[in-house]
């Protein structure tokens, strides 16, 4: 796609005209402030506070993070201890359910389900965050370079942009799950595999996002002004454009976290995840529980509910943030 | 754009379609969706058959189908492993014990109308013996090579000489099979479906031995994929590979009791849960390898759960060439004492499973009740480890994923139990999961980069050598030891013609093995199959040799 | 326009090439393992080595890739390790099932999603609106395979309203011509076969439709809201046009655009979801076969199917882009 950035006349500073130029610059800056009014962030926070779904989403998130961070220290039982087997209460056709001691009963290997659920929250959170970070870091880097190159780099810039976007297109040529499956099938079943596979899937999203954002920013007046003032292109990119492009990235990261958790569960279901149960993780617990759906459906329902509620929380918050940060939306 | 109209149209069509489906549904059947008519049985299998000529097959699904269409000279008794008459009525060895005379049944015809006779038997044996080219490949004729070793002209110099020598027609119903040595395999191994007798006319007409193609693309002849022709109570009808259904129908010209069913359909449903749900909803009327957790619930719902007598063994293999400490018998004994096998059997295996005290099931001749036992004793395990100077051992523990075996219904669960036991004894376990296909067997039975792993075996026929001989009669990378005295005793047992003497040797071998402890036998597990509430007449076979000719629907 | 299409198609080639290299290197690990699939426990290290040799798996990766590319150019995607038939045959026999399933899911998603989204926007703030928005958010958060299991357990197992597995009842001896079972039933006038095939499509279709439905509801609602706020709608109302006319002529037409453009995204979701849904329902389409190929690491099938899906996906996206520019003359295709 050819860049459609208009190229106006380059303003050079003649000594006599400097004052007028600076005045003009001040005018432009003032206009910019007016356009945005109060800082974007403060405006967004105000809107968020009033939005009920944002509050619900944030609440879910806070609870989830608290459980994930603090929970493992407070669990009643060791999530790996197969006490049920030793006590002889686990039979092929019967797994004891809720009791006074074991609030959610045992799992199929005689371990305390409640403890595993709590500890699983931490693992699930880590997996979600790491995979999103992988996608974000790689995607933002690619997109940032491509966007900066396209916006500021002239002919060579557009070439770099083209090549980078071609690579991103390769990732987009497959539906997300199949891409994750290809990566995961290569690397063998382990936790890192899953995180990388799910991370790779979100790379194009972040790349496209940041690139688009950068290009749009590069068209803004203040960039034009700064570059005509002689500020180096790279400095413009790093100090000005990137911070202004961050908002949509954060929103997308929140939404991606939600889908990351679900895709991890899907990969475990397909047998590509980490099969090691000594590190409980909701996706794995859900996959393991499929065989026991008749005997103890709870073993599948609890982690599924955990995944659904957490994903919902992130989605609610992300959507609310997107609405809050979108200046176009008129209420 | 008339947006609303297309939508209305879609809605109308959808409703109409559902209405039609509803009506058609109730027209067809009164008993819910997908019920079969009462002379068709749909059986759910876990995988697709590979090929319909049992001479070329080694997987359970192909053999299950073959067992209904074909017959062998001798067959196991229904529900057991004893050798009983099949297409042969009697058989006697000569004085040397290497030539067996078989008296064949008369009046038997193949599905294409030709006669079964001594000549047909020799055509079949010679076909296998004289195999050439790709048909000599180990993945094509696995069982022939397992039993007989080699061929008339071995193209691969590593193949041993053939145990089979020649086939001689004495008269229409008498045939002599000559072998190069006395072996425990004759005549027991002849009950294997790989030794089914095919119609010589069909073999010729459909070019049955033309296993062709290139190295990475084996092409089976049309005989093996479309025209299997035997003498059995069912004959082949059709095979829809994409839809995973294979249909066979009653052979009305069968020499014995005709099949009660008219049609038998094998349908592949690889997900275990899906099989169970299909059974419950009536889409299928039976399936194999019922999960241990499902045996009691299905029985409670009124389904016929048939438990096969356990004819298998699950063991924990120990590689003495892996971690050097494993070469010390005290360490192996410690491992045995550390495992709470009874708890495993009680919690993970179907009802009827039992702890194994040696490497063959108790129903096989040669089983020895006096072997050294290693009952669960954690303290003793720790003590032995300390004595051997191995209190801080770290061992690799391989286990398979994506598989269910009759002796090992849930490998991951079993691994977790055993590794927890080992951890309690102070051994650090490094779990290594590998997919059954392609990696697990390679990693655990070749090379020496493994310490502990789970594996097992289902018996092929009713002779103990098929168990302990397969494991320990020669040096193997799986176990990593070389004990000449033991191997010699095995060779002696194999060549002992007298059954009683042979069984006595098996007993000695079992005692020796449990002292040497190359691994820890864990359990014998009775795999179960389930049939619909109104299906009767099928007897569970320890060799997975169920005959559906006697199956019928009884309301 | 024509140049645009050609250019896009040409862009496809390097993408596929790159994909094939990556897939090949990724999925092809040495030593391979088809020999294990064949022999199981009966194999000995010697016999397995012999098979490996005969299947050519000991040669270098480069040689194997060379052979792969040569075959690819001849449109030969190789042979499946588990079924021994050509990958192309397997694909051709199974894709009709997936097509029927995705069409069913699309019909459900569009047929329910657009009206629901429209109504939700029209009655902004009502219970229906909140229910739709909430439901659509929830819909994207439920793992498809879990939903499929729940649907199966409730409607097929417990209530018995629908069959649990497969595309068709095995005891109906239906004739198959095209392998599109519904179409076949109609063509051969075996109405019960066609109806049975439709019945088997309902539950998997609903499960698969869940996420696209959620997305369509949201998109429709958002774009209807936007359109409703536009001046021309107020003008139309002022003119006295009935709600139905407004809806027909203006609102929906404009609101459909975002849905049309997201067909590409939705197709991707449907293909992804098909793998999970078909596995749970033992529905013999390409999704279930991909799951099998994952379990057995059947490399030729994985590589072949994924490449074909990439091509199909690209074509769908191309179609969407082209038709979008046809629908909306403001968009200039570059």
Secondary structure elements and pairings:
The complex is a heterotrimer of chains A (331), B (555) and C (334).
Chain A (H helix, E strand, L loop, with lengths): L17 H19 L3 H11 L1 H23 L8 H5 L25 H40 L1 H19 L3 H12 L3 H28 L2 H8 L4 H37 L12 H8 L8 H28 L6
Helix pairs in contact in A: 2-12, 3-5, 3-12, 5-6, 5-8, 5-10, 6-8, 7-8, 8-10, 10-11, 10-12, 11-12
Chain B lengths: L3 H25 L11 E6 L14 H10 L4 E3 L6 E3 L2 E6 L5 E6 L13 H12 L12 H7 L15 E8 L2 E6 L20 H6 L6 E3 L2 E3 L2 H5 L7 E7 L4 E6 L12 E6 L3 H10 L4 E3 L3 H9 L3 E4 L4 E7 L10 H10 L2 H8 L5 E2 L22 H10 L6 E8 L9 H14 L3 E8 H10 L6 E7 L6 H8 L11 H11 L4 H18 L2 E6 L3 E4 L3 E2 L15 E2 L2
Parallel strand pairs in B: 1-12, 17-18, 17-19
Antiparallel strand pairs in B: 2-3, 4-5, 5-7, 6-7, 8-9, 10-11, 11-12, 13-21, 14-21, 15-19, 15-20, 16-20, 22-23
Chain C lengths: L1 H26 L6 H6 L5 H10 L6 H13 L13 H36 L4 H15 L2 H15 L22 H7 L3 H38 L2 H9 L3 H19 L1 H18 L5 H11 L2 H29 L7
Helix pairs in contact in C: 1-14, 5-6, 5-9, 5-12, 5-14, 6-9, 7-9, 7-12, 8-9, 9-11, 9-12, 12-13, 12-14, 13-14
Task: From the structure above, extract its key features.
heterotrimer; A: 331 residues; mainly alpha; 12 helices; 72% helix; 0% strand; elongated; disordered N terminus; C: 334 residues; 14 helices; globular
Task: Kindly report the greatest chain-chain contact and the residue count on each side.
Answer: B-C, 80 and 81 residues
Shape of chain C: globular
Rg calc of chain C: 24 Å
Give the terminus-to-terminus CA distance of chain A: 34 Å
The beta-strand count of chain A equals 0
Secondary-structure element pattern of chain A, one letter each: HHHHHHHHHHHH
